[in-house]
Amino acid sequence: MVRSEARDWFDGALVDLDEARDALRRGRYNWALFAAHQAVEKALKAAYMVLKRARPPKTHDLVRLVEGLGLRLPRELYVGVAELTPYYTLARYPNAGLERPWESIPRETAERLVGVAERVVEHVGRLLGFTGAPREGQEGASGDRREG
């Protein structure tokens, strides 16, 4: 049962990663970074369930999740995860540190950090043996369950 729930979390990460790529293509860099953050968070929480056989901590701090898992990420990914962490809030609220985040985030930053998210999700997927597209019945971008 744990593995099935973990797969649901990982599938959610894949959906969010797809949303990040789509937002990046549309020039919505703040939303791309929020979705990238969510993808990494969900992948790491899936890893918690499988590797630690425990509920993941209720946190959005990606560094805390990586360190709690004892994951050994390449330095550039670890630094990227640390940089991505504050975008959980920064990307959404104009009073959270960035004025008008939908206009303040450079394309290059969004591209780089979405790339970090892709690599982290891929790394976690390999570690857990989860590959490919989300399983049938996975939630869509709207959050509604698809009938399958």
UniProtKB/TrEMBL annotation:
Pfam families: HEPN. InterPro entries: HEPN_dom. Residues 10-120 form the HEPN domain. It comes from the Archaea. SMART domains: HEPN. PROSITE patterns: HEPN (PS50910). Gene3D superfamilies: Nucleotidyltransferases domain 2 (1.20.120.330). This is HEPN domain protein.
